[in-house]
Amino acid sequence: MVWITADSPSWIWGSETFQQLFSVPSGVEASPDLVVQSLPVFNPVVRGTTWSLFRRGEMVPRHRLSPENEQQGMLLRRIETLERRLSQQMIRQDTEINELKTQLHIQQNVLDRLLRITETRQPDSSG
Asked: 10 Å Cβ neighbour count for 40?
């Protein structure tokens, strides 16, 4: 069963062939709001001539996420969480680095003062 247009003909949903090939979630009537989740699978009985239905296809409501989409959504949320954590960590590290630079600058100033004080207090060795 193949149709080229985006909207399937209305008679498709009620046909016996369609109902044999595709399962529809319980409580949901077959309608154009359904999309193909998986295609039916056929096994060859006589290759190229006769086929038997191995597994029915599945139709799901258009708004329902497929397991792959759900899993992809979970992965995206995890990535976003990791990116937020990484960003926060980088901000903390930048703050710590700036504090360390400030402390280093203060210590350098203290060392410079001490050096000047010791140079002025040392007796002249030439004289």
From this structure: 16
